[in-house]
Amino acid sequence: MAFIPAKASAWFEIPVTDMDRARAFYGSVLQNDLILEESGPNPIAMFAAEERTASGHIYSGKPAAPGTGPTIHLSVAAPIEDALERVRQNGGQVVSPAISIPAGTFAYCLDPDGNSFGLFV
C-alpha cells in the first residue's frame, strides 16, 4: 500500500553559524520575524507560517559548503524583485534571475552562510 501525505514536506532545518545574523537576514528578506523557541535542547528560530505542517527553522550548526546543500524554497510577497534586493542588501547573493513557470516565479539565492535557498511568489 502506498502512503500519500497531505503535504510532501513535513519540516526543514537550515544550519547557520550565527543565529542573530541569520534571524536578521531571513526576517528582513521574508518581511517577518523568525520565532525564537528555546523549549528544546538547543535554541532554534522558526519561520513564521499560518500552518505549521510544512514550515521549518534555523539552528546553530555547520552548513554544507556554499551552494552544495539542498535548496528550500521560501514564500515571499510579490514582486519578487523587491525580495531579491533585500537578499543583496542583507549580505546574501542572488544566483539566478527570476524564473517564471506556470505555478509562479522563483529565483535561487545564497544566505550569508552559503546555504542555497529559493524565493517563490
Describe the overall structure.
The protein contains two helices and nine strands; from the N terminus they run βαββββαββββ. It is an alpha+beta fold. The strands form two sheets. Strands 5, 6, 7, 8 and 9 form a five-stranded mixed sheet that branches. A four-stranded mixed sheet has the order 1-4-3-2. A hairpin with a 5-residue loop joins β8 and β9 (116-120). The longest helix is centred in the first third of the chain and has 12 residues, at 19-30. The N and C termini lie far apart (35 Å).
Structure in a nutshell:
This protein is of the alpha+beta class and 121 residues long.
How many alpha or pi helices?
Answer: 2
- The count of β-strands is 9
CATH class: Alpha Beta
Oligomer: single chain
Strand residue content? 25-35%
What proportion of the residues is helical, as a percent range? 10-25%
Give the count of structural domains: 1
Q: C-alpha Rg, in Å? A: 14 Å
Order of helices and strands: EHEEEEHEEEE
- The whole-number mean of residue pLDDT values reads 91
